Amino acid sequence: MQKGIILDTGVLVAFLIPNDKFHQWAVASLTDIQYPVLTCEAVLTEVCFLLQRVHLGRDKALQLVKQGYIEIPFCLSKEIETVEKLMQRYNSVPMSLADACLVRMTEIYTDASILTLDSDFRIYRKHRNQEISVIMPDLER
């Protein structure tokens, strides 16, 4: 059972949309983990935006938070300076606010892995030079 999961936008969207290309992978990945998973408000904002035209999509995403499957321990106002520096460092990628928050979360929750569909997390580094533990599908297929 995988412990310490930080959840990115794409996986949650794929999990909630049955006909998404990565739905089965997301379901399988979220089956064998210890709950709650962690994320940030920026990720939930992206998820709600992407699910706005999906019937009950936003409601289902928020319900996962209400039911305790997803926890949002990250406080941007306390981490804003570090997050801003990350976004500046990866300006050429470019790094979104949500991605910067998740990278910062990996610095705080040192044993956690990011569950993502975003290959940019293979580029990003925590503490400037440490690889981030990433769980993602093999996108080469």
TrEMBL record:
Gene3D superfamilies (UniProt xref): 5'-nuclease
Residues annotated as domain PIN: 5-124
Alphabetical list of InterPro entries matching this protein: PIN-like_dom_sf, PIN_dom
Superkingdom of the source species: Bacteria
Protein name as it appears in the record: PilT domain-containing protein
